[in-house]
Amino acid sequence: MRHTSIVFAAALACGCASNTPSFAPPDQATASAQPSGAPGHVFSEPLAGGGSGPEMVVIPLGAFLMGSPDDDARREANEGPQRRVVIASAFAVGRTEVTWDEWEACVAAGACESTIQEEEGGDEGGGRGARPVVNVSWRDTRDFVDWLNAETEAGQYRLLTEAEWEYVARAGSEARFSWGDDDPVCDVGADNGASFGGCGEEASRPVASFQPNAFGVYDMHGNVWEWVEDCYVDNYADAPGDGSAVLTDDCRMRVNRGGAWFSGRAPFNSVDNLRAAYRSWRRADLRGGLIGFRVARDLE
To answer: How would DSSP label each residue in 260-293?
Structure first.
């Protein structure tokens, strides 16, 4: 079912294409305390105030086609023109969305606001702990990133760019989802399992409930929408090809990706917004019960 066709760093060097990732999906038990540049390496850096930061996985360098092809029947107008993007700077990404436990550590340290979720709906009745934090705006995510950088002294944590997000979500796939073109199912053991509206749940699932993609990353399709760095523009006509963020003078709207546990529920029966190419946007100061985030970390 998995459809993998991506150009990785070695292929870029020789001008040829590779059909398989150059590393095995990481084993959660192999996580270390320090980052490295090896693709698939999993780490969680210690925090100055105690505990550890989010579990991160190193992503391989490479290139991919961003957006959806013109002949895709599910394509939205803002998903093109499809273009080649080269990811040439080493980075790692959170294996999961930022959880309530991780967010509340920032709150306890006085670096993130303690009342914003209660004002906006809290955890929407779904529970906290290992579920993804929600009711955080794009601007709220900056507080978490700043705290994480201060606690690790790394100075390199940030949000994913939109291009990086899609690269990680595809994990080598040119299909609609990381596993291929088949729609998601609710089976946690299936390659195409995901948290979406067809599963009958009334909230998100704990992170990593479903299978990881080929890069070892969980929940890129469904569970909660994820804020990324970019300002929203309605096409890719002038978008950079190096994976950097699109930033404009008027940046009231920021991009979110990935769909959520409510996606596909009546009257919104389509699971199309779980697709890797699907784009959504909201005001940067908006908090919502379906919106969370994950972090990235530069490695250079």
So the answer is: -TTTT-TT----GGGSTT--EEEETT---TTEEE
Q: Using only C-alpha atoms, what is the Rg of the chain?
A: 18
Q: What is the pLDDT of residues 138-166, one digit of tens each?
A: 999 999 999 999 999 989 999 999 999 99
Q: What is the pLDDT of residues 3-31, one digit of tens each?
A: 433 333 333 333 333 333 444 455 544 67
Nearest-angstrom CA–CA distance, 195 and 266: 15
Tokens of 81: 């023109």
Domains of the chain: 7-298 (3.90.1580.10)
Inter-axis angle of helices 100-108 and 138-152, to 10 degrees?
A: 70
